[in-house]
Amino acid sequence: MIKINKLEIENVKRVKAVKIEPSANGLTIVGGKNKQGKTSVLDSIAWALGGNKYRPSQATREGSVVPPHLHLVLSNGLIVERKGKNSDLKVIDPNGEKGGQQLLDSFVNELAIDLPKFMASSSKEKANTLLQIIGVGHKLFELEQKETEIYNSRRAIGQIADQKSKFAKEQPYYPDAPKEPISASDLIQQQQAILARNGENQRKRNQLTQIQQQFSVQTQEVERLTNLLNEAKSKLKQLSADLEIAQKDALDLMDESTEELARNIQQIDEINRKVRANLDKDKAETDANEYRMQYDQLTTQIEAVRKEKSDLLTNADLPLEGLSVDDGELVYEGQKWDNMSGSDQLKVSAAIVRKLKPNCGFILLDKLEQMDLDSLQEFGQWLEQEGLQAIATRVSTGEECSIIIEDGYVAGQAEEDQQAPVPVQEPVASTPTWKAGEF
C-alpha cells in the first residue's frame, strides 16, 4: 500500500511553512487551536494528490506574495509537487520518469482524501458504495425489490385476513337456524298438502256419519217392515261390512298439525335473516383462513429471500469482519451507522475506502475533537493492526497530538527548519538547496 512518507507545505491557506513526517502506520494527529492551519494541512494534501478539483478557493495564504508550494514524498518513491504562479503539478517516479494526475488517480482513492464526504452520506448511500465495491449491489438490489414486493403483498393479505376475521367475529350466529334459506312457496305447498290430507280425513268422517245414519234408518225399517226383513237383512249385512271397514279406517287416522308451518310462514323473514347471517359468518371465517394461509406462504417466501440475501453477503468479500448490509443500511457488530461509536464509524469508513483502492494506504480525517481519548487510542490501534496510515486534525494541544500547529507553523520546530526551503527531489546527481519563496 502506498502511504505518505513526508510532506512539506508553504503558503497554503493558513499554513506558512510546515514539514511533517507522518507515522507509517496508525494515527498522526495534527493538533492546535482554531484558525491555526490544521485543516489547511489536510486541504493541501487533498489538493496535491486529488487534483485541482480539491484546490481551495483561496489557496494562497493571505498576505503572502509567494505562491503556494506543496511537496510530498510517497512510500513508492513518487515525488509530488505543486509550485509556481499556477501551482502546476509535477509527479516524478523513482526511475526519474515524469507523470501526472492520471498516475496519481490510479492509486489515490478519492474517498481517502475526502472521507467526510463518505461519512456524511446517507446510510443507504454508504451501503450502496460497499455493495458496489464487493460486486453484489445489483443482485442484492433485485433481492430487496423482490422482498419488498412479497412483503407488500403479505401485508395486504394480512390486512384482508384481519378484516375478514374481525367481520366474522362481529356477525351474529343462530345455531337453531337451518343451513339454507326457507322458501315460502314450499311451506305453503306443504301446508296445502296437509290440508288436503286432513280434508280427505274429514270426508271419511262424514262418510262414517252417513253410514251410521243409514244403518239406524235401516234398523228401524227392519223393525217396522218385517215383511221386508230378508231384503233388509241382506242390505244390512252389506252395510255392516261397510261399517266395519269404515270404522277401521277411522281408527288409524291421525290429523297432522299445521301450526309449525304456519309459524314458519309468519317467521320466514326472520328465519332467513338468521340463515343469511350464519352463511355470511361461515364465509367470512373461510375467507379469513384462506388469506391467513396465503399470508403464511408469503412469510415463507420472504424468509427464503432474506436467507438468499444473507448467504450473498456471507459469501461476499467484505472489507471488515462484522460488517454487513441489512435492509439497505450498513451494520457493524449488530449496530446501524447512527448507533455506532465514533471509532467504529471511522473503522468502517476506512475499511471501505481501502477496499475501493487497496493500493491507497492512507486516509485524511478532519475534526477528530469529537472523539474522546479512549476512542482515539482504539482507532489508532486498529489502524496500526491493519497497516493503515491516517493523518487527522483535532482542536487540542494535548499529548494525543503528534504535532501542534501554531500560527501556520509546527510548534517546537526550529525556526530555521520552518523557514528552510523545500528541496526539489529530482533524479539528478545532486539536490540543490532553496530558500523560502524561491523555486
Rg estimate, integer Å:
52 Å
Cα distance, first to last residue? 31 Å
Strand content range = 15-25%
Number of domains: 2
Annotation, overall tally of beta strands:
14
Biggest sheet record: 6 strands, antiparallel
CATH topology of the largest domain: Rossmann fold
- From the spread of the alpha carbons, the general shape counts as rod-shaped
H and E order: EEEHEEEEHHHHHHHHHEEEHEHEEEH
CATH class of the largest domain: Alpha Beta
CATH architecture of the largest domain: 3-Layer(aba) Sandwich
What are the segments in which pLDDT stays under 50 over at least 5 consecutive residues?
420-439
GO biological process, one term: double-strand break repair
Domain Endonuclease GajA/Old nuclease/RecF-like AAA: 3-304
Pfam families: AAA_15 (PF13175)
Region (Disordered): 415-439
How would you describe this structure to a colleague?
By secondary structure, the protein is an alpha+beta fold. The chain has 2 domains: 4-108 and 357-419, Rossmann fold; 149-298, no CATH class. 52% of the residues lie in helices and 15% in strands. It contains 13 helices and 14 strands. It has helices at 38-50, 101-105, 110-113, 115-120, 123-134, 137-170, 184-224, 229-252, 259-266, 268-314, 342-356, 373-386, 415-419, and strands spanning 4-12, 15-20, 26-32, 69-74, 79-83, 88-92, 98-99, 323-326, 329-332, 335-336, 362-365, 389-395, 403-406, 409-410. The strands form 3 sheets. The protein has a 6-stranded antiparallel sheet. A hairpin with a 4-residue loop joins strand 5 (79-83) and strand 6 (88-92). It is rod-shaped and about 175 Å long.
